[in-house]
Amino acid sequence: MAPDEPIVIGGMLVISGAVSYLGEDSLGGIELAILHRDGQLLGREIEFVLEDSLCSAEGGQAAAQRLSADESIVGVIGTNCSSAAQGAMPIISDAGLVMIAPSNTSPSLTDEDIAAGGSHLPGYFRTSHNGLMEGMRNAEFATDVLGATSIATVHDGDPYTEGLSRVVAASFADLGGAVVFEGAVNKGDTDMASILTEIAVVNPDVIYLPLFEPEINFFAAQMQHIDGLEDTVIIGGGASFMAGFPENTGEAAVGIYVSGPLVTGNAYNTFLAAWDDEVGGTPPSGYHAHAYDATNILLEAVAAAAVELEGGGLLIGRGAIREALAATEDYPGLTGNLTCLEESPFAGDCATGAALAMFVITEAEVYDDNWPPPVAWNFASDSPGQAEL
Amino acid sequence: MDILRSERSRIVVSLGLLSGAFILFAGAVGMIEAFHEREVVDKFISLGQLLMLLAPFAVGFVAASRMAHTDASALTLLVCGAGVGILTAIPTVILLLFNSEEFRFLLDLTLKLLPLAVASYFAWQRYRAGADPRLVAGAWLAIAVLIGIVTYSFALVFEIKGELRTVLVNINRDWVDVVTFDHRKELMTGILTLCLATVASGCVGAIFHLIPDAPRRALLYGLGVTFLVGAFGETVRLILQEHLDRDTLKEIFRRDTLRQNAALALFVVSTVTGFLWAMFGQNLRHGISTMEYSQRRVLNGIGMLLFVAILLSLPWLIGRTLSDVAVTIGIFVLMGLGLNIAIGLAGLLDLGYVTNYAVGAYILAVLTSIGPLGLLKGTFNFWTVIPVALLAAMTAGFIFAMPVLRMRGDYLAIATLGFGEIIGKLAISDWLKPLIGGAQGVQAIPKPVFLGAELKNPEQLYYIVLVACLVTLFVSIRLNNSRTGRQWMAIREDEDVATAMGIDTARAKLLAFTLSAATGGVAGAIFAAKVGTVFPNSFTVFISINVLSLIIVGGIASNPGIVVGAIVLIGMPELLREFSDFRFMMYGALLILMMIKRPQGFIPSKIVTHEVRQGVKLKPAAAE
Amino acid sequence: MFKWKTDEFSWVDFTIDVLRVLIVLAVVVGAWNTLSSGRISLAQWVNLFAAGLSQGSIYALIALGYTLVYGILLMINFAHGEVFMAGAFTTVFFAEALNRTGFLNEQPLLAILLMIVFAGLVSMTVAILLERIAYRPLRGSPRLVPLITAIGASFFLQYTFRGLYGSGFKAYPGVKALQGAFSIGGINIPVAQVFVFCSALILMLCLYWLVERSRIGKAMRAVSENKEVARLMGIDIDWVIMFTFGVGGFLAGSAGVINGLFRPQGVNFYMGFIPGIKAFTAAVLGGIGNIPGAMLGGLFLGVIEAIGPNLVLAGLGIPGANQLKDVIAFTMLVLVLIFRPQGILGERLSEQKA
């Protein structure tokens, strides 16, 4: 690489279609990460090339195809949707590149056992939590902290929500609880009365609800009108860990538990202030911090892998980046300390679960724009024995 | 007042406001800002700026040519160009003022006075036309109240929300930067710059009309080529990348942006070529048309050979990334050819074509997957599954066709749309999860293996799609000329008459649905093999809509039209990926424009053209 | 080869009969299983029914727009869902502003009325522009042409509003007067649901009066019967068609606000697409082109969606029954088209029209 050339990182995010707010969310995180380094790495400019990966396997494949054709790209941030990652991973891996996903949770992506449904290939990393990890922790929370003995799970036909629901149901059963209802709504449903009635019949202690906006808002708001669910508690997945969720749901959001990354100190508030300044408003979804961290560990790995040549040139091997990334250990990110694991079923998982926490929504979040909500349970400190995998 | 009523000023005002509205709209939806990121020529001009200047240029030119017959002097044309230019800037300037701190009160004032003004204008006109004063007063009140509700509400919203960008998200700092040519801080300078720029390009547009024909065409050609290469920089770079070494490429492109020197060179070369063509092209064409029949056949033969050679070497020519796009286009051509049997040949409006696509994809996935859902791991491979997928899709087509054979026109369309939705919901459902994976879909689908080599690159998959398309093309041409084809045509024209003539319409329609489904199944299977995974969210109503639209845009019942339609509607959005959401907006606008300006499609089929020209309607839209 | 259609026996009829029997069997068995197990109490059924009715009235209001346009132009205005979105999305800002000033909770009735009119006018403007720019040049062209245009317009409008207002979700503010529930004999019916049903009913009655009793309504009916004769009678056809689009748009926009007060969440540029398809289905169920039919079709669809999954699918032991409620809706649609193509209330269209 010649002296004046920029360092190029690629992005494959969903920037069009119904869930494009996920892409905007990640994009903001990436931009801020670059901005916080003043757009410089190793004295060179950082350039960011964005491709739209949509939220589908074919979209991910096309975006990956395009990025891998560009020889100057050193690494890729993406994808948002697990399905897009399934399409993109073979191509990125084949090209010797790395991809760091900010919001994939499908356990299959870090599982190497093909016969059991795994699909991991070398070069894939993620800073979001493996559904397996998040699901187990959520189930633990339901039994240990809330003392629940029965649970209902609801997904929306998205691979993400369906995967999490399955993991939670299985873990909850393992912990001795009863899974009394496993159901689903459709994306675009606004009327939840019929599924809520069905749940009211079995009257579980907890409803596990990893849905996205707006279905989760509808569900939570309409639950108030259903007789028999007054004492049932909702646990939301990471998709509802977003600043707009309480306000958009209204008073029904009070008391909902939301699983999300625990940010220590004021780092996150600084981040949000920077967001308002640079991007404007508040982040539209819950994975901007993961994208921020993903960009940072990628840039760190690039810096570690770079070899200075005589005459100001720079040699950055794709293989070296992959190794440097895999060696990431205890990187202090916004979403907790990141350590990239190597063993299936967590191959490429950089979020170790140490930063997972359960938050509870209060009136302050609904009416006064407070964010993030108070912590109800911190996995690392409240069950230290199981914090690390 | 008279000058305002003249034909000239009407042309100027209407065209100027048109381009002004366009610029305003493009700014408000964020198009200008997004396109600004894309530099057409490095460090010289961006697509966003070009968009702003192109509009007054184009309308300036149109205005000048519309005035040609009034033998207006060059000076008049220039003034008109300037007028169009200034009118283009005005709406944007007003919004700029509304957006600024000092002049925000203007927005409030406008919103509050607007209803009174509009109502008074209408009332005055009615009054002059001699209406009863009491009715006029009533009309005034009604209009003022109705418009008032809207504008006063907006005034309240802006008053409470403060800045414009809290509602209109794209009227933000970046937008101001682009439209004022980076003079956000000193707004008046910015506004002046904007006005000067649009006036200048309006004038240039008008002057352009005065240039003699040949050099004008040459210039237009040169500008057009440079613009296209600049705007589609990524695509061009991807193609050149295959054939040039890295350093040469770097001379031409800085990443996907055309360098200034390269742009200049390209402009000069294409202008000169254009000029030569404008001067001598006539002779060449004349020469060919006067050639002997045998000579022309040779020429046709050479053309044909060249076409085949390009088709065969396409992956090599365009490289991996664009081959990937070509495969996607091919899959849609395949579906287009299939659906055309139902819609184009038999006149059956099928809006649920995705059904067949899904059946093909899932059959391939379940039969060949080496993951947990694979039924017969290793027994089937791509080649043996293709016929199975074909048969399965035909069976599905047959089953779904049975109940709808009696339906016609819109009802048929609605019923098939319903089928498409049902299949989509079933694919995603927990109910069928043990079989086809539900939301998680089917993974680990092996790539086709041919002579021991794994066909995993799009360059190789391209040939599979090509062969499939050619076979389908052959079959559909043969079908069209067969007895069945004639029956379908009869049904398409008039089902009642067809029945009266003794055609077994039920059988013919069933055949059309079944055959049409077959290629959908093959396309689905190829798609599944290409992507390697099958997720239910790939099979939405948009697939059906896309296939239908490409047939209509290309030209119904026209095979070359389907290819063109697929390239425009499937290929272009793929190439325009960097324009993110605006490609869907452009897709929508293209569909509307096409239907208004050229409803018979890009390459109309001969029969259909005949029908359209003769005023014979394929299916009357309204019973009149 | 055997013939598909002979005088004595028709394979098509046979398939349709088999289908009929199978469906009836599935419904009866499913419903019997559910009802005999007694899992869901009467009060819950009533609640579901009420929720279905209010959802259905939203569908009905949107469906009226489809039906009005179809009645006059025989054209499926695929972009009508986006007209609904335009009003609902724009009014969110107005509702927020009203809430911020406190007016919304001080004078809820007046505020809601203002919002409904505002949204109606916004949607009306969009609908009229749509007609003027996209559909008017296409009169008399083959029927595929306006359909494709409408699909294009649908995309265009969605992404225009995404560009204007951004892609995030917004929500209507809660209105205190609409919270809480009426209690009748131990059954709680939320006030919001009653409000939705009543306001939709009022709007539909207004429309009915407009079409059946007013002068312009008479003109609309005349144009839908026969355009040429209507023109000869001195009716300005362009104006009548524009008016029809406007009325349909107004109803869709007001449906947007009513929907927003009843289901405040999930307001974004994509919110019109699915209700659009559902409302369209409702219009066909009731008999497209027929105004009472659209109302009945909407209510029917709403109730079916609310009750169907629990009654039939759960009874058949299908997991994730609620996920398949669209399958029920669309199966209903196909069945109605097979057995009663004119819809529940529609009169049989002449062959020429259908």
Q: Tally the structural domains of chain B.
A: 3
Low-pLDDT segments, ≥5 res of chain B: 611-624
Helical fraction of chain B: over 70%
Please mark out the parts of chain C with pLDDT under 50 across 5 or more consecutive residues, or reply none: 348-354
Largest β-sheet summary of chain C: 2 strands, antiparallel
Could you say what the CATH topology of chain C is called? ABC transporter involved in vitamin B12 uptake, BtuC
Largest interface: B-C, 82 and 82 residues
How would you characterize the largest beta sheet of chain B?
2 strands, antiparallel
Mean pLDDT of chain C: 86
Helical content class of chain C: over 70%
Beta-strand segment tally of chain C: 2
Number of separate structural domains of chain C: 1
Q: N-to-C terminal Cα separation of chain B, in Å?
A: 44 Å
Give the CATH class of chain C. Mainly Alpha
Query: How big is the Rg of chain B?
Result: 29 Å
Shape of chain B: globular
Instruction: Determine the oligomeric state from the structure.
Output: heterotrimer
CATH architecture of chain C, please? Orthogonal Bundle
- Residue share in β-strands of chain B: under 5%
Count of individual helical segments of chain B: 26
- Helices and strands of chain C, in order, run as HHHHHHEEHHHHHHH
